[in-house]
Amino acid sequence: MALTGRTALLAALGSLPVGLWDAGWTGLLAVNAPLALACACDYALAAPVRRLGLTRSGDTSARLGDTADVTLTVTNTTRRPLRADLRDAWPPSSWQPGTETTASRHRLTAPPGERRRLTTRLRPTRRGDRQADRVTLRSYGPLGLVSRQGAHQVPWTVRVLPPFASRKHLPSKLARLRELDGRTSVLTRGEGTEFDSLREYVPGDDTRSIDWRATARQTTVAVRTWRPERDRHILLVLDTGRTAAGRVGDAPRLDAAMDAALLLAALASRAGDRVDLLAYDRRVRARVQGRTGGHLLPALVDTMATLEPELVETDARGLTATVLRTAPRRSLVVLLTSLDTAPVEEGLLPVLPQLTQRHTVLVASVADPQVAEMAEARGSVEAVYEAAAAARARTERQRTAEQLRRHGVTVVDATPDDLAPALADAYLALKAAGRL
Amino acid sequence: MTAPTATGTPATTTATGTPSAATSVTPTVRQRWTRARGVLLALVLLIAGALALAVLRSGDQHGRLDPRSADPYGSRAVAALLADHGVRTRVVTTLDQARTAAGPDTTLLVAAPDLLTDHQQTLLHTATTASGARTVLVAPDTPSVGRLAPGVTADPAPSYDTALAPACALPAARRAGIAETGGIRYRYATTAHGADACYPADGLPTLLRVPQSRGGDTVLLGAPDILYNERLAQQGNASLALQLLGSRPHLVWYLPSLADASAAPDTGERGFFDLLPSGWLWAALQLFIAAALAALWRARRFGPLVLEKLPVAIRASETVEGRARLYRKVNARDRAATALRTTTRTRLAPLVGVPATQAHTPETLLPALSAHLHGDARPLHDLLFGPPPGDDAALVSLADRLDALEREVRRP
Fold it and tell me: Which of A90, A167, B268, B394 is the most exposed place for a label (fewest CB within 10 A)?
């Protein structure tokens, strides 16, 4: 049961007759007894909330930044008309801050035996699963003095997927891939190791690729062409340890890493490579294996949706062991982690040879534009100290990257916006160099 | 987006028969009763216990010095004895009644003089002195005794002996003998002639009779014990009480009460609430009810808060900022200068054709730089490899000069 403002207003107006009549307790009783009676009647005539039928339908997933519409169908199975306010409660991160109240409240009227459909529009602010909380209803009586309040639990889950903002880079990277593949008219010779065909020499071709044996058999000069390898294995490894929780801009590092991983996966699957995913900190958090073609990206996005960074130090030894188990054959291991000195020197470097022995390793890391900004700070003592600290941090980062490169690892260190294209370029460069 | 869409399709009972009961999470009346009955039982037990305790421990001070009370501390026995001797006892509770009842043939007993306000005491004193009545004041203490019996003061140190000997010429006291009057002791000023000072404790009397004009007198009694039902039979208590109270045919027993209108200070001004018609006071009460209803209206939540686990919000640049603050705190100018110089050297080396491995050796970097800039190597040595700056201003200018050098090298 809940009162309305109308009841309080009537009670306040009742003070006028009480004051004018001046009949003491009798006057009070004469005003409040009818009011209480009206409230009781109103309560009795309001449609009971418990017997309403509620079902849900609508979107079950949405990209971060998009909206998801979830429809709630309220069926008035009672014999009284339903006039109600309804609150469809969802976790706070399901809406933009400040819009929760307007987005979750609905008003509905339903005559007996009819149903009404209400649409709640969610605009989530974070990845992950959003589960509907309870639906609270206030069913008002005909006088609008009191309402019956009750709640229904109508389960529904909306999975908020990573936004994959870097998909805008995909067409340009695919064009570059087609050039490598020799499908375009441009005479860019793929540096792959797979022999493709012989063709006539045209000026501009690399003279080293002339096949003299074939030339001897023909009257013209023949050159060999190669094409980039296909059916290579790529293992994307997301480090979900504490370093992934640090926020760069407004989102954790992990989100930027996911974005880059998605672009790389989309590109590699078009290039005919097999892509697997592994998320690891001290244990395997998520794994996508053996998906191909059109099933790969949805599987990746779905798996990444619920992935959150854990506040633990990544176990590099366990990570290496898991990678070696997951990729028994030669693969490209793309490690999306951070280049912070301590975790790399103490964790990754000692076990890196095990990886580089069998695999090609690519380490991608999210750099912080804030640090770059600080490095440019000048003018005051504080600013110069900040610049010095930033310079020191970057020097350490470069040294760490240098140590990794010395082990034959390709290092990509870029800000969140640039990481995805930079990683795609690094992949294309490796492919062009035939190092996969 | 919140507009309900009217579909208008009548729901068939088969489609909507059961899901309603399944989704409702509001507890039914039965569930509420099951949940609340334990608390209710505890509450009932608590209230019952409190009531029982209140009845058992209500104390014997109830009806203290009331001539109608038969409790140990009541005074019904005295009243009954007086009635046997033809003295009529009348109980009054307001000052006006007490004042009108006072007369030459009455004894006025004030059971608790300290409960009267200053104004009431003054009025009472005026009335009793004018009437010629006997006034018996039961154990008045310091401030009241001066107003009710001018010239008498109460001794702040009470006597601890209860039973005392009369030791005075007052016939009533002599006849009664030892009585329990020990309590508050009184000093009286020499101005009060003919006063009887009886039952002394440590040299000061505990019973004092001060004669007044028109044949009246004022009796101050140090302790009320002689009037209690419980103590009446002890020593000479009954005799003393009967003689003190039974000297006149009428006894007016004044029990001061809170309901007495004369207790309110009569300043002659009327407050805001006196001027307001009483109906509007009731209207204010009704407004209070309305406010309570409004509070109930606003206090009812539209469903509980939704809980959610929040992600940690740590900025990745926090360690760098922390290091900058540490540098600032300990004035680590040498460290800061080294960091800035190292970065500049690393960036300059490839621009002037020096391999990165030799960027930090002055012998290689400086000649290449000065050749590139067509300048002297000495100021460059100070700038890139010199001693740490001596103060903060020097550090700021070092950063600016390093920037200027880099810009100059980069200039085509």
Answer: B268
